[in-house]
Amino acid sequence: MSKSYDVIVIGSGPAGYVAAIRCAQLGLSTACVERWTNKNGKQSLGGTCLNVGCIPSKALLDSSEQYHKLTHDFKKHGIEVDGARVDVPKMIGRKQKIVDQLTGGIGMLFKANKIESIHGHGKLLVGNKVEVSHPDSGEVIETLEAKNVILANGSIPIELPFLPFDNDRIVDSAGALEFTEVPEKLAIIGAGVIGLELGSVWRRLGAEVVILEAMDTFLAAADQHAAKEAAKQFKRQGLDIRLGTKVTGAENTGDKVNVNYEDANGAQTLEADRLIVAVGRKPYTEGLLSEECGVQLDERGFIQIGDEWRTDAANVFAVGDTVKGPMLAHKGSEEGVAVAEIIAGKHGHVNFDTIPWVIYTDPEIAWVGKTEHELAEAGIPFNSGQFPFAATGRAKAMESTAGFVKIIAHADTDRILGVHMVGPHVSELIAEAVVAMEYAASAEDLARTVHAHPTLSEAVHEAALAVDKRAIHKAN
Ligand code: FAD
Ligand code: NAD
């Protein structure tokens, strides 16, 4: 007889593992099927985010930032250092240790919550059955069944049809986390989140970095003042971002890669040591759905869902990168919690208006809610207040004064509709804005909240005051 559960989760990324834990907390017998195999041939939990995404990229961003500070910024503090050098294999080793600790930690959480972790490729059959096969050979191991199935199969990098990855000189984001030395010249296709973060890592470590971006607008989804400020700082750091370029192909010549593209001046060739292709991600649904299972994909290949993340098959739900919405770890996790609660008969909910975005460059870029451009297009009247970090004592003390906080509030009600930040530690500061918006705060609420001095959060306070033109530490 096949093993039977209340819930089977396919995928153990931030959407799947969080869903599984919440299901178990709610008393549901739960199994999680995960196909990921690490270099040691063992199952690794945590999905893209923990293995080759959020965590390893932030580990390398931090290491490279330390090196850059040591070689560029310490002097300003009166600290002279000679002979600093980078040990790339050691840096990559540290990153891997963090990945191993965190992925192992999920295994422990699964044990503590009595979640059965199954290593294999899951395929949804008709009637909530899940066939598990060997992730490489495809040999069928067993068939499980459940009252409910949560598909949390995640996403993979988009490969350009005319420019396949060769995992040597032409790599995706995972390959870019494994370089064994700093490339002298690094080309990147796509000035999106991954292009900017990984471009920053290798630039800080000494590579000459050229980023080719198809769009004419830099970071079109972000507040355009923030995008301009960030672009100015990136240029200062030596990131060469070329907008309005159309990449046509690339050849690996053995010791180099030649990237062909067109811009306003015609056809160009860029010679580099490595090429990272970071042009977005797509849902990973290969071998996931049997023909009869009833789950449908939309026209873009995402799993189609209706209310409560329900797919077109009864009691089959889908969450995370494989469904519509931003491809962010925290979005997937919150969907996982909501679906677990719905399955348990509760009222799971996610507020899509307050999902924060963060780009972990220097300066960091973070936002939540609407941009001025979106509000103007929708005809919604607003006031905005902005405050520069250069006018805060803490940012001055840190020698990190680039950027600002901008708060946008409804012109009639003063309710906060969007908050945009570029500057030091805004990845942390954005949480205050998210909480404020979740509680439907007005700019006045933040303006009347006491903020510790001297902190970077004073820029949030002053931006809230500036909405009403009464910031203290700048002319209004
Ligand atoms: P995934 O994390 O992709 O997990 C899906 C899992 O399902 C995988 O482990 C996969 O092996 C497994 N799976 C798929 N199909 C099957 C099957 N049929 N059977 C068994 N198992 C299966 N987001 C942020 O919010 N912050 C960041 O800082 C950030 N940085 C990133 C940096 C990089 C370089 C990359 C690539 C991504 C980053 N992201 C970041 C995005 C983030 O990683 C994803 O949004 C997140 O991992 C999505 O979670 P998920 O659970 O939906 O899918
Ligand atoms: P992205 O959508 O952020 O950026 C892709 C960029 O590539 C876009 O600017 C696009 O215009 C450009 N592009 C597309 N086709 C191109 C072409 N042929 N030539 C030149 N440019 C082209 O995607 P990404 O950077 O690959 O990241 C994927 C997703 O992973 C992100 O959308 C995000 O959801 C997630 N992620 C999040 C974080 C974070 O939260 N800090 C970090 C990394 C990744």
Protein described:
With 476 residues, this protein is α/β, with parallel strands linked by helices. It has 3 domains: 4-157 and 282-350, FAD/NAD(P)-binding domain (3-Layer(bba) Sandwich); 170-279, FAD/NAD(P)-binding domain (3-Layer(bba) Sandwich); 354-467, Enolase-like, domain 1 (2-Layer Sandwich), CATH 3.30.390.30. The chain is built from 12 helices and 22 strands. The strands form 5 sheets. Strands 1, 2, 3, 4, 5, 6 and 17 form a 7-stranded mixed β-sheet that branches. Helix 3 (54-73) runs antiparallel to helix 4 and helix 3 (54-73) packs across helix 5 (193-204). The chain is globular, with a radius of gyration of 24 Å. The structure holds flavin-adenine dinucleotide and nicotinamide-adenine-dinucleotide. Residues 10-16, 33-36, 47-49, 53-54, 57, 121-122, 152-155, 173, 194, 284, 287-288, 320-321, 327-330, 332 line the site of flavin-adenine dinucleotide (FAD). Flavin-adenine dinucleotide is lined by residues 10-16, 33-36, 47-49, 53-54, 57, 121-122, 152-155, 173, 194, 284, 287-288, 320-321, 327-330, 332.
Helix percentage: 25-40%
CATH secondary-structure class of the largest domain: Alpha Beta
Radius of gyration: 24 Å
Distance between the termini: 73 Å
Per DSSP, the total helix count is 12
Low-confidence parts, pLDDT < 50 over ≥5 residues? none
| Small molecules (ligands, ions, cofactors) in the structure | flavin-adenine dinucleotide, nicotinamide-adenine-dinucleotide
**Overall 3D form:** globular
Q: Could you give the count of β-strands?
A: 22
Give me the CATH superfamily of the largest domain: FAD/NAD(P)-binding domain
Strand content: 15-25%
The figure for the number of domains is 3
